[in-house]
Amino acid sequence: MKLASLFSGGKDSTYAIYMVQKQGHEIACLLSVFPKSDESHLLHHPNMAWTKLQSESMNIPQLLISSDSDNTDEELSKLEILLQKAKEQFDIEGVVHGGIKSNFQKDKFETLCSKLDLIIVAPLWGIESQQYMNDLLNSKFEFIMTVVSSDGLDDSWLGKMIFKSDIDILKRLSQKFGFNLNFEGGEAETFVINCPLFTNSIKINQFEKIWDGYRGRFEIVDAGLNYNA
Length: 229
Known about the structure:
By secondary structure, the protein is of the alpha/beta class. The protein has two domains: 2-121, HUPs (Rossmann fold), CATH 3.40.50; 141-226, putative n-type atp pyrophosphatase, domain 2, CATH 3.90.1490. The chain is built from six helices and nine strands; from the N terminus they run βαβαβαβαβαβαβββ. The strands form two sheets. It has a five-stranded parallel sheet, sandwiched between helices. It has a four-stranded antiparallel sheet with strand order 7-6-9-8. It is globular, with a radius of gyration of 17 Å. The mean pLDDT is 91.
């Protein structure tokens, strides 16, 4: 099938593309809705501007739109505009969604896709958290943590690339503090800097860390594609 992919630049949306391509589907375009703020319940907020580098590195065109509100219905109306464009420009038949357990997101996206006569493809749905995190690393996905907002995750995780040794640490922390190991509940967000889909890795040249004692974010100030690797 020819598909569009909902894309935030994080591990889930990127790995979902990797999975459906392995299944033989074509990703015709990326769809990115820029939320108004980090209060959005539906969309990822930090570093969305740098998804353009990921789009370029994957050689997949990206359709962009900004939301003027954190209201879910407003965000869905913006996504509907993007989906209509994708149907007209790329003749897509369905949409890839990187959700794992969030019924809220899944129900909203399924309702919208049904309205537009599009099939929704969710290759990560229901995957076991530890297996998934290991699969990411085994598949040579390199990603950093860009947001932490849970007990047990301090500012030392901001900007950190996740390695195999970190999975065991995160598992123990998730068991102790009750957060999802795959972060789907918003306990953390990620940004992929390299993976098998990329022709060039992403080099972060300048960043800023913001930490309030409980919640923090790693904001990319300047980045580019690494043509020397």
